[in-house]
Protein 1
Amino acid sequence: MCWRIYRVLLTKSGIHAIVPDRRRLDMKLASHALPLPGMAAASLNYSMPVIEPIDSLEEIRNNNQVESRLRSIDWSFSKDDTDYLSHDIHPYPTKFIPQIPANLITALSLPGEIVWDPFGGSGTTAFEALLLGRQAISTDANPLATLISQAKCSTLSPEDLGHLQKLSSRLRALASNRQDAEKILKEAWQQISHLVPEIPNIEKWFHIRTIQELAYLKSQISSLPNETCKVFASVCLSGIIVKVSFQDGETRYASKPRDVDVGETLLSFSNYLSDALKKHEPLQLLLQYRRPIITTLDIREPFRKGRLGPVYSNSVDLVITSPPYANATDNHLYHRFRLFWLGYRPTEFANMEIGSHLRHQRLKRGFDLYAEEMSLALRNIYEALQPGRFAVLIVGDSLFDGKIIHTSEELANISEQIGFEIVTDIERPIHQSKRSFIVGARRARQENILVLRKPPRKIRVVLYPASYKMWDYEVVLRKREIVGLLKTAPEDEGDGRYSLELDPFEVDRIRRLTFTHKAKFNPGSLILTWQAILENGNTLKAKKNRKEPKYVTHGIHPYKGKFYPQLAKSLFNLSGVPTNSWVLDPFCGSGTVLLEAQLNGLHAAGIDMHPLAVLIARAKTSICQENPYEVDFVLKDFLDEIEVDRSSPQHAEWFPPKCHEEIRSWFPPPVVQKLGWLLMEIKKVPILAVQEALLVCLSSIIRNVSQQDPKDLRIRRRNPPITDAPVLELFRQKVLELRARMRQFAESVTAAPYVMKPARVIEGDSRTEEAYAKIAPMNGFDLVVTSPPYATALPYIDTDRLNLLVILGMSSSERSSLERKLTGSREIRARERRQLEEEIPSLTIETVGSQLAIATIQEIWHRNVNAMVKVGFRRRNMGALLLRYFRDMFNSFRAMDKYLARDAQVFIVIGDNKTVAGNTIMRIPTTDILVEQGEAVGWALKERIPITVTKENLRHSKHSITKNTVLWFYKDSSRQAYPHHRG
């Protein structure tokens, strides 16, 4: 198998990064600064932000406090590597050091917020914003800067890397054979000659062979399969232009002709591309498919209809930028030949380049031109910013006619006239490494960090509901979320819209809403909530008329009895627990609550006795903690490995001998050997979390490739039986879906307002204190959200018997033993039934914690015992089964309570079901009984919230429970708990 070699590097918080190809990267961790899955601070002396992050916008309300925090930093960063990773992927003379935006982003914004650099240059701010979990927008008047930024901030997929590596190898092979190269270039010339730009006196600056080979390179780049590859290759082409020309170095605009060999330019490009790919690899471990918005834009143009390119009025949370020095640089001249060869006109850029020395000379204008154009830029920055938010300009002094002008002072005066507050102006010494054609730009010894703020004011917001039709209870929960999170009662505008006024330092809470998907600021932009992005992607155009419950890894495997993720998130919001709180699900099933907790900035822990449920829960939560870049590579390699069916009869022996007979009974021989082969291939995968996810993908198709009727929950065989099944095709489709969902999530995660935390999932018994002791945090769980099994509602193990048999190698006897132990199981042996029935007449509150439970159990048992007609074994067992179920639930409550924090809250999603007792249909009042049991352990019932859930389209599901209640308890320290309970 062609797996690359990986090294797992553990960090202090347990999050890890996977480093490929034996190459060592020195990893550090600052979980507050690098919030995204699997992200450690790779590498090459990466300089972590030294300032502490803010936890809420309240921390930046006071300008004096902001100034004090910013002045506490040594902004020189003289000992730091300022060209780490790919910040030097392409020559760019006026870029500023990445440590500056990294610290400013950390100090002045929250995860998921929008950071804009209007003078984006080579993408330094955008790159740092992505690493720090923010949405990034970078604009610049220079189209080459746009390309460099796009290349720097791109994650090349395995397919992209393959295309670019093949291009490099192909060109190197061509360059090595001069005779063939000369012939091929000559034959191609007629088709590629139009790609030569109209450069004045082109022969003065380029050899004819260079011209031919550059045109050939352009034709090869244009044939690449996607824009990501074309951009990356185009930046590499730009990177060699000066080297292969007659220009005398990067900083001298003079021609120095020389001889050029055939293939020299092709080889130069091949080497540059190969080196760039190597430089880019550690960066990709950090970028992880997160993408900024990067475009070419003239910042002097006004907003039109509330928009300037990709930037909307009142939408940006932080602006960080380093405007050009006045009268100092000429990027249009520095990049003149590069712009020509990339298809741009340098004169167009020259006419809009703010601060250009040649432009000042040509127009015979002094600093007034710079001030005039920077005023236009500052007005646009003001328009873009949300009220109360900051713009930071890193500027240097200007030199006109031998006089120094203090640029920061001049820009501060202009900013005040526009309406900005001046927060502070910090001087910092700069590295003596900037290059320019202009002497004035080389003499700078210090620059200024000018911090501005758009004055805060109340913001009028209109909240829009999800596009799908909501249940009535969801409409109620939505309004309660709004009131609870935003601390304001909204006005009903009709059609599901609510309006309200918010303090500008509270608007970030909007992104946490569940059933609200959009918010419009008046005047200003329309933003998406995190839930909307999870369900539909980060686009305002997405509109689905159905609720999406399968986002990220929620849909990785079907599982009976689970409740949907939006409800779990809504309950998190209703509880009001802060980010970083601990959530427990003692009946975690397939991990819906756990994954939702992760996606919403909460620590999560779960327990379940069902081995398949634990595998699903662990898979769906752990793969989200892996580096998505490495996960994508591993999944691609795996898909390549199983592209062709290489199974054989010997693979049927992969399974444990104890399972062979039963497997042969339920699966045709060709299916058995395919399943064995796939299980063997999965075990070769080098990342455990991906292994488990692949096992779950395989498990999800088991019923469809077996003799089991896939539409029947009972044990029923197909008629007629199958002789084979498309195992590989179904499985590959599941893996492709997993890869696509992980990629979509990785691309969207910069909008997350939270830092994802690892989840703890164990196979254990929630009735025992030992299970909680393994996963409990030091100060106890802050919140419980769970949907426990209903009383005798679903045969979980029986339903999943084939999955347990094939995936986990559990025999029939092992499954039967486990089934009887589950809370809510229908299975019971005669001896245990008789023992329980002996207890029923004399049941006490100490046993089940509920007088109503005692009365219900006794009445059902007496009715069935005294029935005039003969009752079946299910009805005969009901009294004992209910005693066992309610005793188990009470023991779970008591064990759980000992590991809850002092002010913990508990949400239990439960429903009543029915049974026939004697000749009468009786309701089993599970909801009321659990209320009494909760109160018996010292919990106070705050509220009952009625909800309705849906059922899957399966036969024999007509008795499934659709009317449910959410019981909302809080731990009441003042109440008298059950006597045996530790208070």
Protein 2
Amino acid sequence: MFSSGPKREFIGWTRPALPEAVDRLVRRFATDGRLDLGGVIVVLPGQRAGRRLQELLAIAAGERRLLLTPPDVITESSLPERLYVPQKPFADSTTQHLAWAQAILEIPASVRAKVFPFPPAADEKLRWLELGKRLARLHTDLAAECLSFEDVRDCVERLKHPREAARWDALAAARQRYLAILDALGWWDRQTARLIAIEKREIQTTREIILLGLVDLHLAVRRMLDQVAEKATVWVAAPAKQAAAFDSYGCVVPDWWRNATLDIPEDNIENIEGPDDQAFALTRWLAQMSRRFCKDEVAIGVADESLVPQLQRHMTQIEQKTRWVGEQHVGDSRPFRLLSIAARFAAERRYADFAAILRHPDIERCLQLAPSAAVGQLDQFQNAFLPARLAPGFLARLSDSYPELAQAAQRIDRWLEPASRPLLLRKWAEVFPQLLAEIYRESTENEVLDSLRAMVQALDSLQSLPEPLDVRPLSATDAFYIALSSLAGVELAPPLDPDALEILGWLELPLDDAPALAVLSLNEGKVPSATPVDSFLPDSLRCELSIEHNDRRYARDAYALSVLIHSRADWRLFVPRRDGKGDPLQPSRLLFACPDETMIARARKFFQERPPCAPLPALLGASEPLPQSLFVVPQPEPLAKKPTHFSVTRFKDYLASPYRYYLKHVKKLQAVDDSLREMDGLSFGNLLHRVLSAFGHAPPEIRNATSEKTIREFLMERLSDSVRALLDDSSRAVLRLQLKQAELRLALFAEHQAERAQEGWCIVYAEPECENFVTALEAPFLVDGETMTLIGRIDRIDFHPENRTVCILDYKTSDDGKDPAKAHRSGEEWVDLQLPLYMHLWPKAWPEAPDDCAVHLGYFNLSKARSDTLVRLADWDRQTLAAADEKARWVIRQIRSDMFTDSPAPRFEDEFAAICLENVMRSTIAVDGETDS
């Protein structure tokens, strides 16, 4: 017998829909001191509305002293399975995705090419799985509207698109193969089962069904309601005079709403400039509402959810708590993030994943690690080896240098040992929970437990995975992706807080019952939402098939806005002109669903220039003026012990900035992290220095060879020895490129060195290869009658026997050849004293030097260009060198007198910029109660 559909009742929109629904349920079902709703199914758009309905029912029953039996409160997606009895168990989502991927693989290649002309390789399981997920979503969307791939094919054939028809014919073949795979496994596709139940008229129920707020029902649900129409009632939150705006199922009629006029008072629309102005405007409105409403009677709706974090930061600044349902997702939780990086490290052994595990806050306690020491060594290890991957046992071989780090690596490897080899998905369903249990066995945090429940539930479903779909072992990374990646976007409900303001998404607003409401960012593209790009179902084809399209979205959102503005007296719509990047925005077209004269006035008002909102000082909190700025650089402390030993390389640091000298050499501060992905300038220079030091200590026939080939072969061999620990099969490409650059510079060095040897120069001294303090040279240096000690290392000393000339050289590896005179002096001012002070050290390095020899100072440049790879000498006479000595004495006096203040402060970026408050409002150092900026 034909049914005209469920009963339709209009419940008005002069008050929020949920309180009205509760009153109707009480009036209809309360009897003999009971409110028995056990035989009622209430269908709502979302779970939050369901929870709120349950709360309001409990309150109403308590106030009326009724014994409540709650209804079955569900969403639209759960309704179909309440109305028929499945003949087979349903395949879960993972099984469906794998079956779709298998189906695509099994259809003939010529057919598959019509849909996927460039398919993945046969062994790229994850890429096939992605294709399977895509077709599964397409199948679900169509089946919800009682359509199959064959129906779409017929439609595009009618529209005269033969190539599209061929593509949909191929998709239909894949769908048939997918259903055959599931049938052979004894499983049922949920969407197909619903359509079969509708076709065979198997839909039935003994319970009352009440639908509320569902204004865009899928066709499959409508067909089911037709078969139980006598049991179904649709409550439409609108007045009866608007009946023409809704069909017999209470769903919006797009044509009616497209031409509808929305009566929005101008006083309730506030145009603002951008997100900051919107936050301040909202704060003012909340201040007004606080005089009449409690916090739980005010709601904030956001049409653009990307602005929520900024809004929450603003609310925190004014000491107002907020509660945002979409604030936390399973993918953001600590267990999910830890298992994700652990799976990657177990499968791929990437250094970045190992570092992320070691820094994870839950690792320390459970694996009994001391992460502060291990992380410090981690940075040092990374800077030394620049690893892309971390082979098992590699750190154990370096335990003498990195003991805590090696121990941490051993314990992490032991924890991840079960995940170190490929396994079947069903086996991963056992391994992943074991890994989580070892870390979170004793956890009591709600957020952690909620995340773990969701993850374990998803993993449990893998236990029933059909064996034919689980025949190939997978790495931990691939298994994690297949089993758990779909959970990343699943919301974790934040804890309830009576002092917090609720922040709601646009779709949740129509059924919210707060008497005061603010809606933020009512802009085009957000309301109505933009159509997602779909290569299979463009909007024009969606219209032809009568599935969700732009007109339906517009009608749904126009109705939602109508409900908001009619169901409460206090509300405000905020419409910003620009987004957070400063890009222009348009008002929602819903604001222009009005008479022409109103439309023109609104457009002019929105687009006219206006100053930004000024923040209200009172909102920031009043306070007494501070006695002094909080932005003050920490003052240096007097030295506990006056130094007597001075490195010749450190004078440059003091001359550049006494305060930075203090931080670096007195307080021993340095920035160390593991952000390096290639050798920095210092590491690259040190590598070349080690090779050249070895060359300087080679036998005379090599270090003083006149053959470029002999020199080059020695250098390349020593370079290979030096980088053996850095290079393996997993080394970064950029590191290999840098080593090629090192080879090039050493080859250019070999050319020039051979020429220098041919000229008669001999290497008589080279810096020892051992890089510790003991190898440094020392020389006395008299300052004000007191002997100080100069310390330094000389890279190399050459001697020319015929000319009786000594040449003291410092290797430089900058890209362009440095001039030592310019590097040490700026005009008449000394900026570096390293080479001049070598005059005191070199006799200690080569005590056999003749007494009457001339001495030159300079750089041996190892540059990237042949023309810049040469020896450059400084032309300093005795008077100039004496001036350098006096400058050194002045620096020593300053240091020993605790003079570490920069005045004025130098302006440059370095690792101490944060301490020195560079670019932070006003940089100051307190001096005798005053400040110098």
Protein 3
Amino acid sequence: MDGDMINLLKVWLSVCLCVCYCYATAKFVPKGFTRLICFLPIVCLFLYLPLFISSIHLAGNTSFFVSWLANFKLLLFAFGKGPLASDPSFSLARFVPLACLPIKIQQNKNPPPNPLAKHKKTTKSEGIQSVQKQNGQSKENTPADHQDKDKENPIPQDPKVGHKIPLNHVIKDLLFGILLRAYDYSDRIPPYAMWVLYSLHIYLFLELVLAVAAALARTLLATELEPQFNEPYLSTSLQEFWGRQWNLMVTGILRPTVYEPTLGFSRRVVGRRWWAPLPAVLATFLVSGLMHEIVFYHMGRMPPTWGLTCFFLLHGVCLTVEIGLKRAMSTGRWWLPRLVSGGLSVGFVMVTSFWLFLPQFFRFRAEIKAFEEYAAVGEFFRNLISPFVSRVWSSVFACFFYSHSIGKLVPKGTTRLLCVLPVVFLFLYLPLNFSSMHLEGGTAFFISWLGTFKLLLFAFGKGPLASHPPISIGRFLAIGCLPIEFQENPHPKSPNPKFETYPSPSKSHPNGQMTQNPPPKSQNPKIETYPSPSKSNPNRQNRENPPQKSQNSKIETNPSPQKAQKLPLNQVIKGILFVILIGVLKYSEHFHQKLVLVLHCLYIYLTLENLLAIVTILTRSLSGLDLKPHFNDPYFSTSLQNFWGRRWNLVAHSILRSAVYEPTRDYSAGVIGREWAPLPAVFGSFLVSGLMHEHIYYCMGRVRPTWEVTWFFVLHGVCLPVEIVLKKALKGRCRLPRVISLPLTLGFMVVTSYWLFFPQFIRCKADVRMLQEYGEFAAFLKNVIPSFR
């Protein structure tokens, strides 16, 4: 690990440890001043930590996330308030992301209306209701003291907002990329137009950063989050801009930390008068200005000129004036049309930003440093992702567009197969355009293997791409290009708890995926069944996987909530192990050859786990849908059947089942009978898997195959049917204890991998090229993330 990355990791590791300390302290120290005193050293440390980072993007984001939001959350938590105290049963795995990231869990998506509360509000001020009807707004123009309870959660709860977010963010990301290109022509753009672009840049950058943080948190916590922005460019007043549309996470933190305590004090002094909230509004803007000064100091290391504080104080004064005017004109007689008020509001924000906010950016040359960092990132991607990458994946997308159109025009069957065959051959060739081992192997796996097999199934109206009516082009592209399967509906429990049968395709399934439709006599334990956990037999196969109740013998389609909660932490641990393993492999020449092969086994598994986890995170964040798992802890396998059928690379297994196993089984049933038909089907699946692995190795190394990899899968394809026959013959008798069957299974996997799988891996110098590519990536990080000086 290079020094540049270590500095960033030190900061965030310190943050996580401090948050863990606060979590533990809250278990023993009651809320109040005693807990506050325990938290104060952490608050001071959080103000200092961003100074270890000199990149303006990383320093600014760390200051915003940690020095501001995390500190305020901890201050509230000290008194039993805020998002960290909303649920005493929060686990540490949930507490840490909530404290470190700018997120808030959506407690109640659609709270039921309270007609009594609405009646109370209208009777307090009868004129407000008429204004709301004229302007089509519900809370926009009510005085602040009429909204104290309603403002506890000012973020919109409309569920439609959640559906708009993915496309909305894609458009904004495209605008951000276009904006960066526009800076190349800054010498031809007028100064004031450049300032408008800078303002737009800040907004789009915040949207992008917070969207990434929310996507990460949504994946880790498996829960819905409240939105962070609500289209502030549509604001029609300062009250609407700052209260319900701009950076709602900050609004949600400043309200309980500053606004509500100041409001309570103000009411004790002046009573519950209409202008009692005005000092609270001013105090909130003052604190916001001071925190912005701290963030800017962390970014530029320059003493403040207090221009930012003046900017927020000005808006605080103007907002209180606006509230007073709304109160005075509560009849709505002088309200401006929305088009005019929106332009005035956004214009006022921009003009005051030009006057007081943006000059602070220019003082420490933030725009120049930002462009330098963007250039470093762009240079890395230009070196890492050659023009061939864009050509290859553009070709892949175009081919899937073509296949989607063919599916609408050409009926399923041989005719559609002939139409997609050119695409299949092209997919086998495309990975050869790369020179990076990781890009070659990843593209060969995603496209040449899975993408090709999905298209072959699609030609006959089967597989994940086939449905009636046809799925949208967006989902078609995602399922076709990525190793994913959407989890549409949990499968019902097996009617026979002792056996799990193979599912078969069902025409009624919306995506043509496998649903529970067992063939005749499938409940006969001699036909197409895998033994599943049973309490009646303590030594039964697969005791380690009790949550699996599905009839699907190969994929755990509906993991338990406990398993879903374990996955994020499990993945973090595997990511850390992967980084440590890369460092260890640099010294592989000092290790025994067999130990190096063990490390290579671990490397291949962790690479696949982390790669597929990244794909899952991105897909789940963009689609908002659950995905079927890719792995199921294969190191807990107690038999070959358990390893290959329920634990290892389950998405590839599902495709092989539909494309190879089921057609071979159905054909064999007419030749040798249904009782023994699964055995040649299993062997055929392993044979095809071996051939596809040969193709992936050829794409990675350009070395002619020696067919050892195929023999590896053929050997396992023979041993697995033998294991199935022995299980049928023994009928549950003479089962080995798990403590014996588990090392025997893993030992057989490792030994046969030494013998047949890894020689080809070493022959194409994959281990050497792997370390070279990671070294190039580390060099990129060294340029992008400057070391602490």
Protein 4
Amino acid sequence: MTSPGHLPGDYTALSDKMTYLTALRVGLALIVLAWSAVRPEALGTTFEVLGLVTAGYVATTALLELVRRRLGQRGVALLGALLLVDGLYLACAMYATGGTQSSIGFLVYLHLVAVSLLASYRTGLKIALWHSLLQLVVLYAQAAQVIRPIEVVGGQDVAFDRMPVLNITAFWLFALATSAFSAMNERELRHGRADLQTLVDLGARLDDVSDPVQQSTIVLELLADRFGFGRGLVLGASGDQVTALASRGCADHRTAPGNVDAIVGKAVTRRDLLAIKRINPDANPLLAAAMPEARNLLVCPMIADGQVIGAIVLEHRSRNLRGVERRVASVVRQVSAVAALNMRSALLLRDVRDLAERDPLTGTGNRRTFQLMLERELQPGRIRAGRAASSTAVLYIDLDDFKVVNDTLGHAVGDALLVAVASRISSSTRDGDVVARLGGDEFAVLTSDSADLERTLAIANRLVRELGSPYQIGEHSVAVTASIGIASSLGAGEVSSDLMRNADAAMYMAKANGKASFAVFDPEMHAVIRERNLVGTSLQRLVELDQLRLVYQPIIDLQSGRVAGVEALVRWQDPERGLVGPASFIEIAEENGAIFAIGRWVLREACTETTRWGPEQAGIFLAVNVSARELGQPGFVQAVQATLADTGLDPTRLHLEITETALLKANASTVSTLESLRGLGIRIAIDDFGTGYFSLSHLRQFPIDALKIAREFVQAGESDAKSAALASAIVALGHSLGILTVAEGIETPRQADRMRSLGCTFGQGYFFSHPVSAAEIEGLAMRAAAARPAIRRRLAGRTAGPAATRPFRGGPSPSVASVGIAHRRT
């Protein structure tokens, strides 16, 4: 019997005091022998009698002590035998010296008290109480003559009182029982201290761990080592779902989140430890899979701040649950409480870190995380360790026309699109590359350990291709592209902010070069970006400063040669740079929102000038190119209707052109807007047709009146058979659907003849006229009318295409052309 140490008020095992107990026995024996030798008359017996008894006592106790010491911890049970020998010796000594009147009685009492106090003061108090109670019982029994002395000793009648012997023997039996009880208390004390140490060790080990999975593993290991549990499982709970966090001795526990098992649910509902003899696999699939044929389970919920965050499931090795001690269940409860608090703290810390380090929408890193990783990659120490400075590159990714998606389809679709984009970026990069969402529709990739720039360019090319494929967001098919800027570290000591700024500049150059592409940073780009920013700032006041101008390019009826309409082109009259074409500012205006003011001005000014033309130009129609952002703006239909009313232009003379890519991003609201415009008498045309992914289903979905064939197919058709075939297919498509076709960018007679022979109704381009002012349109129309007979003779003998006599769907004769204000073209 050992003690874990002495604390005030705690029990102390007698085995720890055997040296003092042995000295007490030896001292008692010497006192009795000396007393009987010096004053035998006082004891009422002789030295020979006491000496013999004492020698036997000393020999017996010495032998038992020797055996006890050799047995070590296993000899603790001999303590009871030693105490019994002590009691018998004292009983014999009192018998030999006169029973209850013996002068050794006081010595015996002191000896017994000393033995009790050696055990502990609590045990000594118990022994003293038992002794006093026994004395009272014996006295009352003698007084009531319940106990009478037996007066027969060796065949002679001797007045002998047996009560002292009975008293001392019974007392030592009680002392032996009290010592055993003390030993049990000592065991409970050791267990209690061990349990307390278990909780202290658990708290210390969990303090250094912030991962819930590692914490769960520590809890299982500690409980298994402390109590010998066979198998164990820690479950994490989130709502109605549970996930196995850690296991010990179980099957593969890394399962996907599932519904709460019946047993776990019952323990959670009761919010207390639950003992289960066996489980039903059908009602508890997760436990049955992790712990097949499990029996005698303890299921304890983990509760922190009143919230259930998981459960601990343990399989006890006992054959039945009655073998589980109450203190074990108590410790499991306390361990569960400590683990729950630490796990709750870990989860909160993880949430805080996620908020600080991760983008909450896409789950990728955020700007702060990306900046820290980039700074670490650019540390001089990493470069000195042998890594090339040029091995670190930043790819700055920006989605093209993402604002159009938000404006037309709503922010919910926009958010879902960002999540899909983040997924494609992550799957298109290598392991070890850092992916982050910087904000809005901007992403970045940090790639390191690239042997050369070619590997980085390969990643960029793959990203452009993957991000440009259509996305299926719910019921919407969304098409966006991405522009990517690339900047590589130039050497040791480079600042991360410089690298980011360089990549950003390269990204803007990729946009300026036509989007859906990537560009590698060049130092001259910063000057271009500064110029772009200045332009963006100036665009906000173009209308206010009256710096916008309109010019018109005629559109010719290919069958008759007459001017059927005009296309108005917007220009910026910059005080410093002169007349600036739309290619230099319209894209920027769409990005910063200035397109709304510019678009309103273009529509009103074009309608106003058209109404000023004379009766000879009454048959000329006007079409305004509308950006996707304008089309998705609330109240757009009402604004167009008000402009027509204010300027007095007949709605049937106005055609609105929308680019093919803009219509690809349209939704049901866009279709409704186009139909409302058609209801006013306005015609709808698709600009740059053939450059996107427009399908026949789209043509059936949208109220389309005309297709404008992209100039690429018109100009390349002379030398490229595929382009010529595509142009012919578009014209044929228009014929079959009753939709007019307009060929853009005609610059040679051969191109004009070829498009007329295909049956294309209208054409425009430098071959017919460069853009002119509104005042020149009237004279140009008159000159075209005078030249019409010569044109007819030139075209004589050529078979006109079927569209030459096809009536305009929903409109007047085929001499009416669709013309437009092209913001983006020259």
